[in-house]
Amino acid sequence: MLTQDVTKELEAVMDQLQQQGKQPTVALVKTRLKTPVPMPALIAAIKSWKSASRIPKVEVAVQTPSEDDRITALEKTVAKLVVRIEELEAKLSEKTS
Predict the structure, then answer these.
(1) Domain spans of the chain?
(2) For the residues of 11-61, what is the DSSP string, one character each?
(3) Which of 45, 69, 55, 59 is nearest to 1 (CA)?
(4) pLDDT higher for 78 or 35?
């Protein structure tokens, strides 16, 4: 399973909250994160930050798109490419006529 290190992102969020004069809470941190972090890891990181002003290394599983999502994305890409090919063919036939 692939993992992603989110420690730096957590530190940035905590620093931002501290600069704003706010105490980091689960809700505040969770809403500011771009990467989903499991609740137990988030709670442990906040506790560590409050007690020692440091965050332990936090890694989360990389979210992989489902097969249906991948197929949908590929179908959209193919549709766009078909339109572009048709436009190019039309331009090419105009030039040769």
Answers:
(1) 3-61, 65-97
(2) HHHHHHHHHTT----HHHHHHH-SS---HHHHHHHHHHHHHHS-----EEE
(3) 59
(4) 78
Contact 3, 57 (CB under 8 A): no
Q: Both tokens of residue 43? A: 């709670």
Please tell me the predicted confidence (pLDDT) of residue 1.
58
**Tens of pLDDT, residues 16-51:** 998 999 998 999 999 999 888 889 989 999 999 888
- Of 53, 54, 38, the closest CA to residue 3 belongs to 38
* Strand partners of residue 5: 59
